[in-house]
Amino acid sequence: MTVIIDLDKCGHISNCPGQGLCIQLCDQKALIEEDNDVKVIDENCNDCDLCLMNCPNQAISKS
After folding, report:
1. Which residues of 10-22 are buried (b: 16+ CB within 10 A; e: fewer)?
2. Mean pLDDT by 10-residue block, N- to C-terminus, for the chain (63 residues)?
3. What is the pTM of this model?
4. What's the CATH number of domain 3-62, 3.30.420.40, 2.60.120.10, 3.40.50.300, 3.30.70.20?
């Protein structure tokens, strides 16, 4: 499945109450910071759902 970041809900890393918690939790490096936003590297994702379960803004979903 593909991880989708809703950038309107995310509010950029600088405004995130978790200060980029999704990136910090991702051991696979499927989420990275790029220009103060979260970028998804699909081929690195192992569908663990840690990012989805821990996003304080509920900005992460899967399709």
Report:
1. beebeebeeebbb
2. 90 90 96 94 95 96 92
3. 0.89
4. 3.30.70.20
Helix, strand or coil, per DSSP, at residue 50: helix
Contact indicator for 56, 39 with CB cutoff of 8 Å? no
Distances (CA, A) of 63 to 4, 15, 47: 7, 25, 11
pLDDT tens-digit readout, 35-50: 999 999 999 999 999 9
- Does an H or E element contain 10, and which? helix 7-10
Fill in the amino acid letter for 12. Answer: H
Show me where the domains of the chain are located.
Answer: 3-62
